[in-house]
Amino acid sequence: MFIDTAKVFVKSGDGGHGAISFRREKYVPLGGPDGGDGGRGGDVIFVVDIGMTTLLDFKYKRKFVAETGTSGGASKCYGKDGNDITIRVPLGTIIKDSESGKIMCDLSHKDDKYVVCKGGKGGKGNVKFCTPTRQAPNFAEPGMPGEERFVSLELKLLADVGLLGFPNVGKSTFISTVTKAKPKIANYHFTTLKPNLGVVSVPGIEPFVMADIPGIIEGAAEGVGLGLEFLRHIERTRLLIHVVDISGIEGRDPIEDFIKINEELKKYSVKLWDRPQIVVANKCDMLYDEEVFENFKKKVNEMGYDKVFKMSAATYDNVEAVVKAAAEMLKDIPITDLIINPEDMFVPEDKKFTYTISVEPYDDGEESYNVYVIEGSFVDRLLLAVNVNDPDSFRYFHKVLKNKGIFDELREMGIQHGDMVRTNDFEFEYVM
Q1: Are residues 93 and 112 in the same domain?
Q2: Which residues contact 367 (CB under 8 A, 6 or more apart)?
Q3: Which CATH number belongs to the domain containing residue 141 in this structure?
Q4: Interstrand relation of 85-89 and 44-48 (parallel, antiparallel or unpaired)
Q5: Which of 72, 109, 166, 293 is the most exposed place for a label (fewest CB within 10 A)?
Q6: Which CATH number belongs to the domain containing residue 379 in this structure?
């Protein structure tokens, strides 16, 4: 089974909480705070495994969660960092954010790796909040939450040469004669249901990788049949060998087929359409009128394609000439990475200090005022860090809101003396 797409859920580990602790020993009555920091949460990392060829493993396991950091302890003991989780994928895998569809990374080299979710930072222990005027802080910082998201994996085969053409034109027979690939071969349409890779190794030429892509039909660029799934696999190829059935035994016009396939390429990607092509008129052993090939070659030459070969993959006639021409052209075509437009790249949001403020009017008949509701991961985390019933801790809470500009924003929104501010289940009166 060939699986070339998958969707998985990934979550990095939460950071461990900082400890609230005070040194308590005999003969040390004023030991002071000694709460240690929490450990960092584990990352989720995708790495290339050259031994993998499909995304089949992700059909059975679709959830990956890294380890949470350990909370800090007394005596300034730091919590243990959570272990990272490593997810292995085949070479040529593209990782996308499922929600936005943006590309996060392209793992197209042997040692590539990508941190898709960073572990949450460990919280500071209360010893870190000690100042000359606040010598016994009764609060600590909670660990930052880990990131989580659904990601889509797409495998785009890494091949130097891609075989192109309508179904049943002889692509599978061709690749089976020049490589050790063993595709299913039969005389009916869509025999090939999955891409096949093979290494072409002929004496006198530099070996290269060839991909037999399942036959493309009209409308493939719009997703007809399995068009988009097949077209993605020739995006990385440097050279295309366009195979047509010159025999006409199925009543098809080779020129018409050639034009239709190139139109599908152009609709899908202009860069792909502009890629160098070797045109191969296959099944010449069943051709009884040489003028058919000569007319075909003339028309293809007029379209700008000068490499046109007559071939029979079944009898091995002229196969070596096609392979050597491909090897010669590859010498002058540089290896380039897949070009990704900047607007298609995923840009992670900084959720560390995200919050929203909304206004809810309150009127019970006796008094009326506005309630300003602050929501978001920032205030959730801040409330976990403080003890609002402790004066020093509450002063720290007030200071953070002021430093982050929340009070300035409230004033811009028109907050008045006596209005209420609510964060989660904690509410306090705003005083000018």
Answers
A1: yes
A2: none
A3: 2.70.210.12
A4: parallel
A5: 109
A6: 3.30.300.350
What is the separation, in whole angstroms, between the first and last Cα of the chain?
69
> CA 92 from chain center: how many Å?
11
Cβ contact 81:38 at 8 Å: no
Dump pLDDT digits (tens) for 43-88. 999 999 988 878 888 988 999 999 999 999 988 999 999 999 999 9
Q: Which residues constitute the domain of residue 374?
A: 356-429
Residue 227: count of CB within 10 angstroms of its CB = 20
Please write down the long-range contacts of 189-198, taking CB distance under 8 Å and 24 or more positions apart: 189/215, 190/214, 190/215, 191/167, 192/167, 193/2, 194/2, 195/2, 195/4, 195/157, 195/230, 195/233, 196/172, 197/53, 197/157, 197/159
Question: What is the three-class DSSP state of 286?
Answer: helix
Model pTM score: 0.72
What is the sign, positive or negative, of the torsion defined by CA atoms of 280, 283, 285, 288? negative
Secondary structure of 162-211 in HEC code, one letter for each residue: EEECCCCCCHHHHHHHHCCCCCCCCCCCCCCCCCEEEEECCCCCCCEEEE
Q: Which residue has the tokens 């019970």?
A: 364
